[in-house]
From TrEMBL:
It holds the Pfam family STAS. It comes from Mycolicibacterium peregrinum. Belongs to the anti-sigma-factor antagonist family. This is Anti-sigma factor antagonist. Gene3D superfamilies: STAS domain. GO terms for molecular function: anti-sigma factor antagonist activity. NCBIfam families: ant_ant_sig (TIGR00377).
Length: 129
C-alpha cells in the first residue's frame, strides 16, 4: 500500500477514503460519514491502514471532510489507536467539526483519541486543542 495512492470504491458515497504515504507515515483522508451502517467498513479501513503504516511511524486519519462520526466509530478508532501503539504506530485524528469533537468528549474518549485541527499539527505532534 505504501509508495502509491490507494482509493476506496465510493460506490455508495457514504464513506470513502484515500491513503497516501508521507515521510512521517501514512495519511488517510476520509470522506462522507461513519455511522452504524458502515462501521464494519470503517473498522476494516482502520485495520488495513494501520497494517500498512511502517513501525515507528504516524497514521493520520484525516476526517476533516467527514460530515458525521458516530460514537461507535470513535470507539473503533480508539481501539485501533491502542492496538497500533503496541505495533509501534501512533494514530492521530484530524477533525474540524465541533459536533464530532463534542461526540469525542461526550463518549469520554478525549484521552484515548489524539484529535488535531489539521494534518500539519497531527504530523508534527502538536498538542490537540
Amino acid at each position: 500500500m505504501l509508495g502509491f495512492i490507494v482509493k476506496s470504491n465510493p460506490k455508495d458515497h457514504e464513506l470513502h477514503w484515500m491513503a497516501h504515504p508521507v515521510p512521517e507515515g501514512l495519511i488517510v483522508q476520509v470522506f462522507g460519514q461513519v455511522d452504524a451502517h458502515n462501521e464494519p467498513t470503517w473498522e476494516r479501513m482502520l485495520g488495513e491502514s494501520a497494517a500498512a503504516a511502517p513501525e515507528g511511524s504516524i497514521l493520520v486519519v484525516d476526517g476533516g471532510s467527514l460530515d458525521f462520526m458516530s460514537c461507535g466509530a470513535l470507539v473503533a478508532l480508539a481501539k485501533q489507536a491502542v492496538d497500533s501503539r503496541q505495533q509501534g504506530v501512533t494514530v492521530r485524528l484530524v477533525i474540524t467539526l465541533p459536533s464530532i469533537r463534542r461526540v469525542i468528549a461526550n463518549c469520554g474518549l478525549d484521552d484515548a483519541i489524539s484529535a488535531h485541527p489539521d494534518v500539519e499539527s497531527a504530523l508534527n505532534g502538536g498538542s490537540p486543542p
